[in-house]
From TrEMBL:
Superkingdom classification of source: Bacteria
Entry keyword set: Copper
Protein name: Metal-sensitive transcriptional regulator
Species in which this protein is naturally found: Microbacterium helvum
Membrane-spanning residues: none
Magnesium listed as a keyword: no
InterPro entries assigned: Metal_Tscrpt_repr (IPR003735), Metal_Tscrpt_repr_sf (IPR038390)
């Protein structure tokens, strides 16, 4: 994933996205444990909603970072990822 900015900004962005994904990972483990322990439907759905929210937030962080990078240098981003501008646009639309 191409991230522009200073090395410090790049590291902070990667850390923020990784933390969101780790949170989703932990919440998914909670869903699995709830299902395996025959927890109530309410508990399973509550945990599942938390996973969905965490993944959505991570996805939006990734998309916003990629969009910022693509707006700053669309050709450079396309070349770095090996995608055409049209392919990048389709990827963004698929996540929206």
């Amino acid at each position: 994933m191409m991230i522009t900015g200073t090395p410090e900004e790049q590291a902070a962005t990667r850390k923020r996205i990784a933390n969101r994904l780790k949170r989703a990972h932990g919440q998914l483990a909670g869903v699995i444990a709830a299902v395996e322990s025959d927890a109530s439907c309410r508990d399973v759905v509550t945990q599942l909603a938390a996973v969905t929210s965490a993944l959505d937030r991570a996805g939006f962080a990734i998309v916003s970072t990629a969009m910022r990078d693509c707006v700053a240098d669309p050709e450079g981003a396309a070349n770095a990822e090996g995608l055409t501008t049209d392919e990048l646009e389709k990827l963004f639309l698929a996540l929206a």
